[in-house]
Design brief:
- With 204 residues, the protein is α+β, with helices and mostly antiparallel strands.
- It has 9 helices and 6 strands; from the N terminus they run ααααβαβαββαβααβ.
- The strands form 2 sheets. The chain has a 4-stranded mixed β-sheet.
Length: 204
């Protein structure tokens, strides 16, 4: 949907990255690695977005790579970085639009998972709720075709532009881990999350 609206898949992926990380600066080659896109395509879209005022260029006092390299002299202004221009007049509207598009994509992702098999518990956490260092992003309890699940997750990763870590358990494993107060499981159950399906911890 967003590709048709903005006319470029690369532009959409760049916008999603910047809008989701408004305070994070990026340089060109870093963007090509993150987005797995061609340098020329990324450079062209960065120039376009810069002309529109959606992003702006900055020069940090210290080049990050040089700072991390041991035994090397600090380089001042070694690279040109780009960052989201939060003062752009349509910034709030753009952020809302991409959030709504992501929610639609997440709903489609969840529907596909629910259609895979008999899902007894489905919890979204991690990247879905803004937790960047969570142990998993999705917990699924029930009988599932793991090959099909991997395919669905890979397709969604392209839309989200972010890797998805998922955990699959049988009902027996879930109950065992819950009974022994397994830390991994209780971090999910007691942490920030979205419960999509629950036919285990609550009655139908």
């Amino acid at each position: 949907m967003l590709e048709q609206l903005f006319g470029s898949k690369t532009r959409v992926r760049i916008l999603r990255l910047f809008l989701n990380n408004p305070s994070q600066p990026y340089y060109l080659r870093e963007l090509t690695r993150k987005l797995k896109s061609q340098l020329n395509s990324v450079r062209r879209e960065i120039n376009n977005l810069g002309k529109m005022g959606i992003i702006k260029s900055v020069k940090p006092a210290e080049d990050k790579e040089a700072k991390e390299a041991k035994g090397k002299k600090m380089i001042s202004g070694g690279k040109k970085y780009f960052i989201t221009n939060i003062d752009f007049i349509l910034y709030p509207e753009l952020k809302t639009l991409f959030l709504k598009a992501q929610l639609l994509s997440e709903k489609s992702f969840v529907r596909k998972i629910e259609n895979l098999a008999s899902v007894k518990l489905l919890i979204l956490t991690g990247v879905f709720v803004g937790l960047q260092n969570a142990s998993t992003d999705l917990l699924l309890v029930g009988a599932v075709n793991r090959r099909k699940l991997a395919k669905i997750a890979k397709e969604f990763e392209k839309d989200l532009n972010h890797g998805i870590n998922y955990t699959v358990m049988s009902q027996q494993e879930f109950r065992y881990r819950r009974d022994i107060t397994d830390r991994f499981l209780y971090d999910i159950l007691e942490g920030k999350k979205m419960v999509i399906v629950d036919k285990i911890t609550k009655p139908d």
